[in-house]
Amino acid sequence: MNRAHLSQLAVLATVAQCGSFRGAARELAIAPSAVSHAVSSLEARLGVRLLSRSTRSVAPTEEGAQLLERLRPALSEIDLALETAVEARDRPAGNLRLSVPRTAAHLVLTPRLGAFARAYPDIVLEIVIEDRFTDVVEGGFDAGVRLGESLQRDMIAVRIGPDIRGAVVGAPVYFEANPKPRHPRDLADHRCIRFRFSSGILYRWEFAKGGEEIEISAQGPLILDEDHLIAQAAADGAGLAFVFEDYVRAPLADGRLIRVLEDWCPSFDGFFVYYPSRRQMRPALRAFVDFFKVSG
């Protein structure tokens, strides 16, 4: 193999990931002209167009996409070899890119990010907020974080948070005008604050008790896509909310919110970090998993 191709292939992969020559130049800390020259030289040597360019974006051609698909594992192995060498010399280093749902970022990661950064100053941690389940390999991520019930069987999964539980809550002023629901079906007579996933799907409220499972398509005047906002709207009397109880511990404790249907909200598996079983774990990822995993 012509060794000059290796650096040009790395530039090509970065351009495809960033979607622009300027973005790749920033990522690689080189001039945009050097990025353009590397890609053009590679295309000239191979005799095939690898990127489709427009005034607004850059995207792989069909031939470029096929090349990148086969190239990605090799570049990942090179990154792993380099970072393993750094670890052997000193400590884990390099970029670590994770796909994380907003709730996990709030409840599990954010409280400990400062401590992680101090423990591993040579790791550049990038957290991409995505509520949908992501193929971490296809998305170019080192790993992802999801609820235990959402994990695929071909992934290695490590628990990084405790069991979690939902809570149906409303403000005292709301219950002054509305009776407290005693069964999930009573919610049909209530104004509920609904949650919409980034996929566009509205969350159906899930309940379980004594072996009986019920899903409710809640109705109400307000739809939000952020749990903090939903909890605040409930505290302001807008209606009933169904959120993870960690979001409402403080307002429940001081009386700003009242909990109902508690016996219909069992605990379930919390968040796990997951990554492909066929891929050797990078030193930076191992450091992350060991730092955040739940002991015992």
Structure description:
The chain is α/β, with parallel strands linked by helices and 296 residues long. The chain folds into three domains: 3-86, Orthogonal Bundle (Arc Repressor Mutant, subunit A), CATH 1.10.10; 91-163 and 270-292, Periplasmic binding protein-like II (D-Maltodextrin-Binding Protein, domain 2, 3-Layer(aba) Sandwich); 164-268, D-Maltodextrin-Binding Protein, domain 2, CATH 3.40.190. It contains ten helices and 15 strands. Strand 1 and strand 2 (58-60) form a beta hairpin. The radius of gyration is 24 Å and the shape is elongated. The mean pLDDT is 87.
Percent of residues in beta strands: 15-25%
CATH fold category name of the largest domain: D-Maltodextrin-Binding Protein, domain 2
Separation of termini? 49 Å
Compute the CA-based radius of gyration.
24 Å
Alpha plus pi helix count: 10
Main beta sheet, described? Answer: 6 strands, mixed
Question: Spans with pLDDT under 50 lasting ≥5 residues?
Answer: none
The dominant shape is elongated
Keywords: DNA-binding, Transcription, Transcription regulation
GO biological process, one term: DNA-templated transcription
Domain HTH lysR-type: 1-61
Family: Belongs to the LysR transcriptional regulatory family.
